[in-house]
Amino acid sequence: MAKGHKYCINNLLRLEDIRVTEVVEEVDEDVVVIKVQPRKEKEIFCPHCGSKHLYRHGHARPRKVLHACICGKRIYLKIQGLQRLKCKHCGRTFTQQLEI
What we know:
With 100 residues, the chain is mainly β. It is 11% helix and 46% strand.
């Protein structure tokens, strides 16, 4: 896929700070799956205590989320590459969140 197409997909679906890696159209069904991952890590804070002292605690499983319906086709986002994080302050784990 050309670089310009990925930029247009980001604008069409209003995806900010998210990188489109692949677009797959399933022929049998009216479904389009767009594989995405976070573009860069912003400063992340613990949602439980607000601390910024975190460390990586593995990867989250890919998720498939219905995002929109366009021209009778369901548009799913397959979110990959999210980090699991653990707070050094309160010891709780959580998954990195995307602003979608």
